[in-house]
């Protein structure tokens, strides 16, 4: 167990180093570099830009810049926003809750709905329901999230008036119920793709578990089909889903960015787009790295969790 | 018991194995047919319609679908939506297809090198793949697209350099297992060069998974282009793409919902078709996949 954990931790650290290198390279190989935006500013001369580059240490060799930057990253100094001078990490922290709330709700929804569809597909294999679920999942995987969001707003906000079209809460209200009311549509929109993925996965996993010997034993000792499903099949099928949740993180974050944009949700995704609009280089850089760190850590947590839950790994 | 009971109920027509296979292939055929129709419509359609995609007519702003010769209505500048949709389709499909070609090329190159060389180089390459996969694709694509000059070619390159990793992984695994096979040992004993063995002996045996991954990559590339164009960092107006046609649609959602519905439907149809084709190819070429 401790060997597994140590191994997994060191893997994550190596991955974080690689991620930081990719992020640094991506943003430094762009023409003009981080100060390119000032080139168009009439209040700035070429001399000013050179002086800024000198001041910010942008004229040193790239690898020195990288180590300097990475070291400050580790210390928690992520630089300051070009827009308002606020520390990057603090600004990200302020937007983290909204994104995590949205992602958490939609992932829970996706797992619940997807599992139900998947298990029903497996127990009713080759039924009409199974076919519809299969085709439906493939279509759901193909719908652009923003389009689904726009149609959701059109139907449920503009036509039916059931839910608000945006923001996280009503100014002056902000009760839990108000948050939930604002949360319904964006989290459903974000969950669509993942319902499709979970249901496909759950179908395979359930079929797998159903063909195992312990299910035959359970049937032989006369357990009802329902109890077999709940006690023996679902538990076994759910375990690897923790890992899958980790693997899905990047695509959930991608979906969250789009969903937040449409629903004016004050999370990391919208912050990223706003920062792009302002050419706020430290903010963009910070969010890019932060999203990747979130993914790496999410996968690590998922794997460690599986190791603790699964006796095959826990006891080894 | 219900499971056994279910087996005893009379077989329905959709239980038949042949029907099942046909259903799977049926979807793939449907996908091919829809793509064929889309491509033909996008290539020849604009010549058949009476409007130009950039023709502005302020008297005809916000015409709803089926008004006069505007079959899909008009946009806020009075431009005909049908012809714009077809012109946008040229751009979106071309970008998606080219991005797939380029990313498959990159992915295959990395995968073959990593799988065949193995050792230190292989490990370094595959860790790089893991690193790229850790970024939510849209963050990476947007960061690149916002700072590089967003021409269609540049958008294609950006999508390709951020979506080659799946192919690389698939090819690497395939090549690693092929590397130890008899015919490769034989080729090595004959004295063939490493490059020859990689390209002529191993690669042809890995084409099945590559083709499947490529067809799914087209779907993903079209979606990615739509996302970034929708957000304003992809294909730039006046050149229409399915994504940027949706760009301003949200503010007119109440008064002119067709501006949002029609281009989104086109994207969904195209992406669904490629996913159907990919699924059919996976069955036909007997490629195993972990999930979905």
Automatic annotation (TrEMBL), chain A:
Keywords in alphabetical order: Cell membrane, Membrane, Transmembrane, Transmembrane helix, Transport
TM region positions: 12-30, 96-119, 131-156, 176-197, 237-263, 283-309
Annotated GO CC locations: plasma membrane
Topology term for the membrane: Multi-pass membrane protein
Domain ABC transmembrane type-1 positions: 96-306
Domain of life: Bacteria
Name this protein carries in UniProt: ABC transporter permease
Pfam families: BPD_transp_1, BPD_transp_1_N
Signal sequence interval, chain numbering: none
SUPFAM superfamilies per the UniProt record, alphabetical: MetI-like
UniProt record similarity statement: Belongs to the binding-protein-dependent transport system permease family.
TrEMBL record, chain B:
Pfam families: BPD_transp_1, OppC_N
Family per similarity comment: Belongs to the binding-protein-dependent transport system permease family.
Main localisation: membrane
Biological process per Gene Ontology, one example term: peptide transport
Occurrences of domain ABC transmembrane type-1 (ranges): 89-278
Transmembrane regions: 27-49, 93-116, 128-147, 153-171, 210-235, 255-278
Annotated membrane topology: Multi-pass membrane protein
PROSITE patterns per record: ABC_TM1
Gene Ontology cellular-component annotations: plasma membrane
Subcellular location: Cell membrane
Name assigned to this protein: ABC transporter permease
């Amino acid at each position: 167990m401790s060997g597994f954990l140590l191994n997994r931790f060191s893997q994550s650290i190596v991955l974080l180093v690689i991620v930081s290198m990719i992020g640094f390279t991506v943003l430094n190989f762009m023409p003009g570099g981080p100060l390119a935006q000032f080139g168009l500013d009439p209040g700035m001369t070429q001399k000013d830009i050179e002086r800024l580059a000198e001041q910010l240490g942008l004229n040193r060799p790239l690898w020195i810049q990288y180590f300097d930057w990475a070291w400050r990253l580790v210390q928690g100094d992520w630089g300051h926003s070009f827009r308002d001078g606020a520390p990057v990490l603090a600004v990200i922290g302020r937007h983290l809750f909204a994104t995590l709330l949205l992602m958490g709700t939609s992932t829970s929804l996706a797992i619940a709905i997807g599992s139900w569809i998947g298990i029903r597909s497996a127990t009713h294999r080759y039924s009409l329901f199974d076919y519809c679920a299969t085709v439906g999942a493939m279509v759901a995987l193909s719908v652009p999230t923003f389009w689904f969001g726009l149609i959701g707003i059109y139907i449920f906000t503009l036509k039916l008036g059931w839910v608000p079209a945006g923001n996280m809460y009503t100014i002056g209200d902000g009760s839990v119920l108000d948050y939930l009311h604002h949360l319904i549509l964006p989290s459903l929109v974000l969950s669509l793709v993942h319902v499709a993925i979970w249901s496909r996965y759950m179908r395979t996993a359930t079929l797998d578990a159903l063909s195992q010997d312990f299910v035959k034993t359970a049937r032989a000792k006369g357990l009802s089909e329902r109890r077999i499903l709940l006690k023996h099949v679902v538990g076994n099928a759910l375990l690897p889903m923790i890992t899958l949740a980790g693997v899905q993180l990047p695509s959930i974050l991608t979906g969250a960015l789009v969903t937040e944009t449409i629903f004016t949700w004050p999370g990391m995704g919208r912050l990223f787009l706003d920062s792009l609009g302002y050419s706020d280089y430290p903010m963009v850089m910070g969010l890019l790295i932060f999203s990747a760190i979130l993914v790496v850590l999410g996968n690590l947590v998922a794997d460690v969790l599986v190791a603790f839950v699964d006796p095959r790994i826990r006891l080894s | 018991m219900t499971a056994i009971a279910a087996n005893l109920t009379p077989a329905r027509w959709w239980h038949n194995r042949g029907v099942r296979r046909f259903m799977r292939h049926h979807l793939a055929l449907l996908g091919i047919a829809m793509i064929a129709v889309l491509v033909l419509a996008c290539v020849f359609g604009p010549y058949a319609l009476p409007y130009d995609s950039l023709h502005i007519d302020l008297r005809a702003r916000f015409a709803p679908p089926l008004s006069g010769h505007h079959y899909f209505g008009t946009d806020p500048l009075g431009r005909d939506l049908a012809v714009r949709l077809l012109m946008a389709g040229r751009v979106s499909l071309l970008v998606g297809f080219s991005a797939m070609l380029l990313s498959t090329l990159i992915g295959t190159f990395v995968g073959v090198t990593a799988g065949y060389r193995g050792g230190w180089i292989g490990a370094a390459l595959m860790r790089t793949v893991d690193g790229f996969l850790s970024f939510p694709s849209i963050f990476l694509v947007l960061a690149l697209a916002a700072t590089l000059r967003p021409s269609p070619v540049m958008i294609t390159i950006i999508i390709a350099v951020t979506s080659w990793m799946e192919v690389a992984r698939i090819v690497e695994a395939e090549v690693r297992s092929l590397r130890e096979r008899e015919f490769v040992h034989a080729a090595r004993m004959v004295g063939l060069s490493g490059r020859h063995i990689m390209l002529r002996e191993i690669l042809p045996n890995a084409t099945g998974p590559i083709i499947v991954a490529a067809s799914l990559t087209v779907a993903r590339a079209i979606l990615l282009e739509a996302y970034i164009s929708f957000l304003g960092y992809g294909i730039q107006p006046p050149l229409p793409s399915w994504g940027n046609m949706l760009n301003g649609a949200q503010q007119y959602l109440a008064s002119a919902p067709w501006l949002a519905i029609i281009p989104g439907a086109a994207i969904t149809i195209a992406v669904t078709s490629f996913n159907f084709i990919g699924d059919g190819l996976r069955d036909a070429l007997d490629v195993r996949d972990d999930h979905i």
